[in-house]
Amino acid sequence: MSSHSSSTPTTDESTDRTTGASDDAIIQTEIDVDDNSRSTDDAETIVRAERLNVYYNDDRALDDVTIEIPENRVTAMIGPSGCGKSTFLRSINRMNDRIPAASVDGELYFREKNVYDEDVDPVALRRKIGQVFQSPNPFPKSIYDNVAYGLRVQGKADEVDLDAAVERALRGAALWDEVKDQLDESGLDLSGGQQQRLCIARAIAPDPEVILMDEPTSALDPVAASKIEDLIDELVEEYTVIIVTHNMQQAARISDRTAVFLTGGELVEFDETATIFENPADDRVEDYITGKFG
Ligand SMILES: Nc1ncnc2c1ncn2[C@@H]1O[C@H](COP(=O)(O)OP(=O)(O)OP(=O)(O)O)[C@@H](O)[C@H]1O
C-alpha cells in the first residue's frame, strides 16, 4: 500500500541529528496517510447513531454522539484513554447489554433498524455485527472447531458444507495456507498473530456485515500487526470494518474515515482520514493528533 506523509508534528522524543536538540518545535515525525484510502462520498450508511448517550450508573461515557458510518469502508475511532471509544463500539452490537451498570438513550441504527428496539434479538444482531477483541481469544478447541463454532451454534452446520465454510473463512482471514494441514490441532498452539487471524476467521464464518475491532493489534508484534492491517484492507471489500485504535499511525494507514472522541465521550470530529490528520477543523483535534495532550 503506498502512502504519503502529512508531516504532522508529534511529541515523539526523537533527537535532531544536526543540533542534538530534542524540541517539539523543531522535530517533526510523520504520520503517513494512506494514499489509497477509499472515498466515502458514494458509500451507503450502514451504522448510524443519533444523539446516543451511554451511562455507567450516573456517569456519562458517551455524550450525544451522532455519526453515520459508511458501508464497505474502514472507520477508525481514536481519542485519549477513557473517552468512550470501546463504549461506542460495544453499543453497536449491544455488548453493553452485558454490563449491568450500563444504560443507553438515543438511537443506534443498523441498516435503518434501531438496534435498541424491543423486537431486536441481540444474539442475532451479533451475527450480523461480529467482534474481534484486543487480545486474541481462541476457544480451547481445534482450529477447525473454532471457525465452525458460529455456524454450529446458529444451527446452520447441517445446511452448509462445513468444510467449505471453514476453508472460506480461513482463506478470508489469510490463514488457510498456514494451517490447512493442522486443522485438528488446538487454536491455542498458534502464534499470537495467527490466533488473532483465527479469531477474525471465527468472526467472518457466520457471514456478518460489520466487523468491530477493539485494538486488534495492540497485543501483537509489529510483523503480526502489519499482517492484520493488510488483512483489514482486504476484508473491507466484503465487510464494513470499525476499528478502535490507540495508534494514530495505524488509523492513518488503514482507515478511510476517522472519528475523534475526546474526554467526556464527545465525538469532536468525524471526517475523511486525510482531512483529520492533515487539516482538522477543530483545534482540539489538531492538539490531540499533534500530541499536545492525550
Ligand atoms: N464496565 C464499566 N463500568 C463502569 N464504567 C465503565 C465501564 N467501562 C467503561 N467505563 C467508563 O466509561 C468511560 C469510557 O470508557 P471506554 O472504555 O469506553 O473508553 P476508551 O476510550 O475505550 O478507553 P481506552 O482507550 O482506555 O480503552 C471511562 O470513564 C470508563 O472508566
TrEMBL record:
Q: Where is the composition biased (Low complexity)?
A: 1-12
- What Pfam families does the annotation carry? ABC_tran
Q: Which GO terms describe its molecular function?
A: ATP binding; ATP hydrolysis activity; phosphate transmembrane transporter activity
The UniProt keyword set, sorted, is: ATP-binding, Cell membrane, Membrane, Nucleotide-binding, Transport
User: What does the entry list under GO cellular component?
Assistant: membrane
In residue numbers, the region (Disordered) covers: 1-26
Q: Which residues form the ABC transporter domain?
A: 47-289
One GO term (biological process): phosphate ion transmembrane transport
Protein name (Swiss-Prot/TrEMBL)? Phosphate transport ATP-binding protein PstB
Source organism: Natrarchaeobaculum sulfurireducens
